[in-house]
């Protein structure tokens, strides 16, 4: 590790991850408090329905959204370093156009599907109206342009501060609901306000950074201008869009399938487990958010990005092993905070914990393959893994109930990382023949 710290880029990745992690710990505690409060104050069916409504909006947005932040960094990172504001502005304007069009498409499609098949996802008729209102969050929830802008200019400290907004407001909302004895609608409103406030704060920060750099004109959306100056941009955004759509199957869509098969109460237990695991995997998410901008600035023909990926992957895997042991030891006491009605969620979380280690160890693979121009390999791995996961989820849930859903998740995550590792090794073997990727 001391020798690894001689690598400036590695130190930058750790520094950016530190920014994000410093406030995310506070946010995680606040978010857990809000989740525990909702779990205790609502019935298991109401709590499960709240999670399903939130998950449905996330899933609808994820199925249509473009990873515009990845596009901004891939095509704008080097021009930004070189002072080419013209290309950077075109990249951001293109991202804006993608976010606006996909966000409103996702909202409309989500509302239509909710009206026609909401009960299939475990959302009862009596909750349709409030779920439709929640769908109006989709345009802001699926927008990634402000995140891309802040990562591009290196303002990870601002992203870190923004991470507290949503869990803080949720915690305050749950406290108010408890003090005044408010019901289910108040909890949905709390989640709604927390989400939209967090998104608006992020936009405000991005706008302020663009204003400082005299780049506010970058906020005019355009889908026609950038492609003529950024060769391959449409191919990249479609591949990442498809990859994001498939990625949504792991959590939002998977949760909806469990809700449709086992009911909202089981969906609530599944959501508790996946939420806590997602919180546990945050160190890898922090590393990834700092890793992607840096690796996109490196030459894939050199040793540097591959060595950086190996080091960050090993570091993340070590953290993951420690977290898995903590879950196996302390998972049951943690779940007990929600009340005895959710006790079986602790066993489910333990079953799913190996997926956490695999995900954390393999987090550099996607960024590495994008850098090496292997976006199709990322998509191919997702397609095979997601199809396998969905099939396994249905059959194992039918056979073993909620625990079967956990087993299916572990198998799917393992397959995804194995399928991503193979093309990464192949790309490394022919790294000397890789041309420098135009960004």
Describe the secondary structure blueprint for this structure.
Elements: H1 8-41, H2 44-64, H3 68-81, H4 85-117, H5 128-134, H6 138-141, H7 145-152, H8 156-162, H9 165-180, H10 184-212, H11 226-229, H12 233-247, H13 249-262, H14 264-280, H15 282-295, H16 304-335, H17 344-362, H18 364-371, H19 375-400, H20 402-429
Helix pairs in contact: 1-8, 1-9, 1-15, 2-4, 2-10, 2-13, 2-14, 3-4, 3-7, 3-12, 7-10, 9-10, 12-19, 13-14, 13-19, 14-17, 15-16, 15-18, 16-17, 17-20, 18-20, 19-20
What would you note in describing this structure?
- The structure is a single chain.
- The protein has 439 residues and is an all-alpha fold.
- The protein has one domain.
- Helices cover 80% and strands 0% of the residues.
- It has 20 helices and no strands.
- It has helices at residues 8-41, 44-64, 68-81, 85-117, 128-134, 138-141, 145-152, 156-162, 165-180, 184-212, 226-229, 233-247, 249-262, 264-280, 282-295, 304-335, 344-362, 364-371, 375-400, 402-429.
- Helix 2 packs across helix 14 (264-280) and helix 13 runs parallel beside helix 19 (375-400).
- It is globular, with a radius of gyration of 21 Å.
Short description:
It is a multi-pass membrane protein. This protein has 439 residues and is an all-alpha fold.
Key terms:
single chain, 439 residues, mainly alpha, 20 helices, 80% helix
In what range is the share of β-strand residues? under 5%
Coarse structural class: mainly alpha
- What series of H and E elements makes up the topology? HHHHHHHHHHHHHHHHHHHH
The total strand number stands at: 0
Any idea how many domains?
Answer: 1
C-alpha geometry: globular
Largest sheet: number of strands, sense, barrel closure? none
Overall pLDDT level: 83
Number of helices: 20
Tell me roughly what share of residues is in helical segments: over 70%
């Amino acid at each position: 590790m001391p020798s690894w710290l001689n690598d400036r880029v590695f130190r930058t990745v750790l520094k950016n991850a530190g920014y994000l992690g410093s406030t995310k710990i506070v946010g995680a505690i606040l978010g857990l408090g809000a989740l525990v409060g909702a779990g205790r104050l609502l019935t298991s069916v109401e709590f499960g329905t709240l999670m399903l409504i939130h998950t449905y909006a996330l899933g609808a947005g994820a199925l249509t959204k473009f990873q515009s932040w990845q596009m901004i960094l891939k095509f704008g990172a080097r021009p930004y370093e070189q002072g080419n504001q013209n290309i950077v502005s075109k990249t951001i304007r293109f991202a804006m156009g993608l976010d606006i069009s996909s966000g409103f498409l996702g909202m409309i499609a989500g509302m239509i599907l909710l009206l026609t098949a909401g009960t299939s996802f475990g959302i009862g008729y009596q909750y349709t109206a409030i779920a439709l209102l929640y769908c109006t969050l989709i345009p802001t929830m699926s927008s990634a342009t402000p995140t891309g802008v802040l990562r591009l200019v290196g303002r990870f400290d601002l992203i870190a501060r923004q991470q507290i907004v949503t869990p803080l407001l949720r915690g305050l909302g749950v406290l108010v609901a408890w003090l005044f004895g408010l019901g289910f609608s108040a909890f949905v409103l709390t989640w709604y306000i927390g989400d939209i406030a967090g998104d608006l704060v992020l936009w405000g920060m991005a706008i302020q950074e663009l204003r400082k750099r005299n780049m506010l004109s970058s906020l005019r959306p355009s889908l026609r201008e950038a492609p003529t100056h950024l060769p391959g941009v449409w191919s990249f955004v479609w591949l990442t869009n498809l990859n994001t759509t498939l990625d949504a199957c792991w959590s939002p869509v998977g949760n909806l399938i469990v809700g449709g098969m086992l009911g909202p109460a089981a969906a609530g237990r599944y959501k508790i487990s996946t939420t806590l695991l997602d919180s546990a995997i945050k160190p890898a998410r922090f590393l990834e958010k700092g890793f992607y901008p840096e690796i996109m600035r490196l030459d894939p023909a050199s040793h540097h990005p591959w060595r950086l990926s190996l080091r960050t992957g090993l570091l993340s895997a070590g953290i993951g092993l420690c977290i898995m042991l903590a879950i196996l030891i302390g998972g049951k006491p943690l779940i007990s905070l929600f009340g005895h009605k959710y006790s079986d969620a602790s066993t489910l979380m333990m079953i799913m914990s190996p997926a956490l280690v695999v995900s954390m160890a393999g987090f550099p693979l996607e960024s590495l393959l994008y850098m090496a121009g292997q976006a199709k390999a990322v998509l191919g791995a997702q397609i095979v893994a997601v199809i396998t996961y969905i099939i396994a989820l249905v059959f194992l849930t039918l056979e073993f109930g909620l625990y079967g859903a956990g087993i299916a998740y572990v198998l799917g995550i393992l397959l995804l990382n194995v399928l991503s590792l193979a093309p990464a090794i192949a790309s490394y073997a022919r790294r000397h023949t890789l041309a420098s990727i135009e960004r």
